User: Fold these one by one.
Assistant:
Number 1:
Amino acid sequence: NDKQMRKAILSNPYMLGLRTERIQESIDFFAKCEVLPPELASMLTLQPMLVNLNAKDNLEAKRRFFRDELGVNTRAFRLLILYKPQTLMPSLGVLKEKVKFYHEEFGLSYEVIAKRIAVIPLAYAEDTLRYKAKFLKDFLGWSDETFTKALSNYPAMLGYSIEDNLVKTFEYLEEDLGMKREAVAEVLANHPHVFGYSLEKKLRPTVSYILRLYPNATVAQAIAAAKHSFENRIRPRSELLERLDLLWRYSPRYIASMSMKDFGDKFTDMELDVTDEEIRAKKRKVDSDLKV
């Protein structure tokens, strides 16, 4: 639209001097990558310099590198360029060096790199990545093995601000929730995606809600459950279980992680208004082998 066009031109006025054929080649390349026109418009608004890259000699060479040398499939490559289009801006040589760096410096397997490529911070300088890795290991007391495990699960954590994300998340768990330092380090190692949550908009209100509602929930369970949508999963499901007096029986993580079908098959037949006696009768029908 006009707003996107103005923003792109202001960021990259050079694009107006490109030949129409050159622009069309770029459009055709992204179409081959299964990027839809509205998605391409958003990409070019975010990273308008992409149209400056030659589709045949530059973009295609990078696509072949990700596909042939790393084994990144079309779907993963599509997600990569949709959410991190700036990844295509460095030269092919720089990209190869950065992938090699994650493998040799942090011990990530090429299989993990290919699988997580859309969330690996490839645009950061190596010294910056080393500094953040050292900070995490020193601050949390993580071993090299623990760090590599956490990074393999969520490499995006190296893209977050030390002060605004990493430290504040740790302080919330330790100071506000009263967790011991070793316990915080273990929870963050098992759930490193927590570093990416907004403390005030997601993590704090979600964990507070779960701990207030579920009588047997631990902090670790609440944090694990927080990865799921609060509005679409955690709150509506919890409210139903509260009406059925079943919150004591289940962990919030288990309830939040159930598929829509499994949750519906198990609990929606109880959703009608019922008496306390009926609730108790229905509770006895709940399978005893469900994990608490």
Number 2:
Amino acid sequence: EYLGVQSIANVGGAVRLVSCKTGYGLSSMLQKAQDLAEDMDCDVYVVGAANAGKSTLINFILDKNVQKTGAGRNTKKRAGNQNAKKGAVTTSPLPGTTLKFIQVDLGNGQKLYDTPGLLVPGTLTQLLTPAELKMVVPKKEVEPITLRIASGKCVQVGGLARIEVIGDSKPFLFTFFVSNDIKLHPTDTSRADELIAKHVGGLITPPLAPGPERMEQIGEFESHDIEIDGTGWKEAAADITLRGLGWVAVTGAGVAKVRVSVPKGIGISVRPPLMPFDIWEAAASHTGGKAVRKGGKTKSGKRRKGVGRR
């Protein structure tokens, strides 16, 4: 148990970092699931929130099964989705794309079932338009950005959330793990409302234009005050999760007093850091209206290109 979170390893489970795009970690994860299913004499079910990537995972397994058996797949293009292969599971940033249980034969009498996504209450995606959903749901590897925030300063996560440091807190580092299409904008807390009113839907997205009208549709915001005990500058102390948007890792020494503002009813939580050592590789400078990651060398020794969010 850590910060009140109990490990599922206590009941024979495991947490795995995987990529359905590259296949990283998927074979060992699937083997673990099959071993557990064999021990418990049951099938495997893929269960989770809408847009978590369940159908993308199923498609990867289907492709692996085709390669293993050598069976060809009908590649006739589907109406309305020219890039999809017939037999594949439809994927979309829109929740509710999977409408029924989909069965995959794993062999040895085991079946794997893809289930419809759970519509989790308090998820930000339920407030967004299809075009905004495409921005919020990552399509490629997320490039985290670390920004230093002092008391009286804040960062706008598009127009959908605000992270600010309050009270007598010393400056802390905040590493944002959100879609690369979401614009991050550091500013003075005193100017944040004016900034949103003037630039939402343009300089600040999502939401998209017409920004003021969309903000009115999204509704009233509410603030949550959090205190996080820092563990030093080498690793993050905790993550602040923004349900349906991403998370922010908090790093520093002392106590961080943080105010998180999100649309009313949207859930936030504090958890142990998922990626505590990504702080300095994602360090950024701020100039004008954009956050820009500093150039440098990667672990492989190659020069890292400067990237950021305009």
Number 3:
Amino acid sequence: ASRSGASLRATRASTGDGMSLETLETSEAHDPPPEEVQAARAKADAKRADAIAARIDAAKSTPPSASRSWDARDALDACERLFRDHPGSLIRERCRDEIFTPSKGDDDGSSSEHVRDLVYGEFGFMSLVALFRKYSDQIPPRAVVADLGSGVGRALFAAACLRPDIARCVGVEKLRGLHELASEVRALYDAELAPMLSATRSPKVELHRGDFLHGAEWRGADVVLVNSAIFRDELFDATEARAAEVLGAGALVVTLRRGFRDCGREGACWELLEATERRQSWGMSTVYVHRRTRNSPGRTGIED
């Protein structure tokens, strides 16, 4: 359904040369009035807030104890319980709202390139399991894991469960609605899950709203996740340059669909460790794992 209240119907017409054209026809709207939609959303938000408050109160009255053993299945189960009041439908709704509803002074949302950079998708859980297993000896205890474009933080909470010995999980997200949902989940993580990971030193989850190209929140991270599957070329190249500036030697950067350009030459900033097909939330995608070398990057002009 379109935002104007008219619905769109896709039809296909032959061009006569074996190809087809998809056309959009408007029909009478059957969507509820906007005020009804807003009222229903407000009611659902209030119900979710009550459920979150009840869960936090329950955790305070009966604090969970630290688990003696923790494997990938335990981590998956814990993440699913954590997100039980934040289904995928809610996350997609909030993402679509902000992509197509511009703020004053922002891109109007009509540019396909602008929309591409913000389309929502998540690292697959088993993809993260494979990453932390394979590179466990390169990820030190008390490490910092960052997710650029962290959405509702699912990869951050998964990382905390898979490596309870890390110090911080840092997320940077541009969209306000997703950042707010992530903050709700973090409150639940602090109450329900963190005490199960460690009695004293469970990973701290930090959430920042902003542009990761200009922020310094992820400076010095040991592992950086970048869901770059549909990044524009300009954004991907800027991400590579920024990572070379703010990360130290030995840091791992994981990208999807394509790898950094500055690899495989003398003086390169990055060493490509692997390029492997793994399942993500939307399907299969190539995972590129890079390690920062000791070589200095060229100046990019991007400031903190």
Number 4:
Amino acid sequence: KGRPTRGPPQCFQHGRGGVMIEGEVQRFLVGCALASLNLLYAREVVIRAKVPPGWVRLMLFLPCLASHVLFPANNFDPLKETMAAAVSFTNFGWWTNFKLMGLAFGRGQLVGKVGSPLMFLAAGALPIKEEGRGPKHGSGRRTRSASAAEAKVARDLSPSATLARACCRIPVLCTVIYAAPRLQVGSFALNLCYSFGLYAVLGFIFDIAGLVSSTVFSITLSPHFDKPFLSTSATNFWAKRWNLVAGTLLREVIYEPIIEGSMTALPSKGSKSRNPPKPSTARRLAATTACFLASGLAHEIIMWYMCGAREFGWEWTAFFTAQAPLCALEWFIKRQTKLRFPTPLAIVVFLTVQLTIAKFLFFPPVVRQGLDQRVINDVKRILGLP
């Protein structure tokens, strides 16, 4: 049984690969235009209608949230246009929607952008993580090492460095494409190869989005990845190194409301930053679990869509939800035993644990549904590889 949804227009179903890619780009731009209209409407709700943060504002955003899911679902065929379908559905259906949900309750990076329509559109429609503006510590004076670190980040995020990084990801993708078929299904080597491929794909998408936002809209960005394969723990990986776009959104929409005990952002007290009481361990564990559960469900829906609406296997939900007790166990061991591994050993232990969990929960549905081969074939088609 196939997926009973409308496929791409007939003029894009046949003919040369270049014509198909052109059609995908056109429909993706239509999706961007739809998201822009929805974001402008949301901005009017905030500025003109002056609807306060809360559930009423969220209800007014519901048509926007629904259209961001329905448009890619009905205009891209995930079985034939795998990459375009995945990027559209994930960016608009998850990331843009989470930004709007944060705005509905007075949270997230869109809150500070309502005054500028173009900045608001860029921050809402592009998969980017804006530079954090946390409180200054101590006397506010920066040390020489801190200034040097900031200068290094600025160089790494410059347009030329971003473009060079995006270009460097293409050879990684090509290596994965031609190495994967030669590796045994389910092997550690193949799973590691797929992990590098996923990193290269996401990194390329974030680099291109960052290049557009920094050159066209002059938005100052934070890194979207930070050498994830050098992570020393699950907490270090998910909180500081891997896909910080999704991580930031989960923190703003899921984690912070649970920690604060309020869906609506708490108002600041005067000119000073508010200092809420330190959350209990149980509350932090509940917030962490909720974040991973929400991430797992989002990934599960994406998998369901990408596989032609065939089944809910719940394996991806289980994979991400399992990260919460793993992070809690790391915290408990670190606090109770003061156990510290040398950095190289910690990296090896972390990668071994994660790839073992992924072997049973993350990669089986990918291989079973043939998603890995469809992604490889689609990337080859887009890059014009034989």
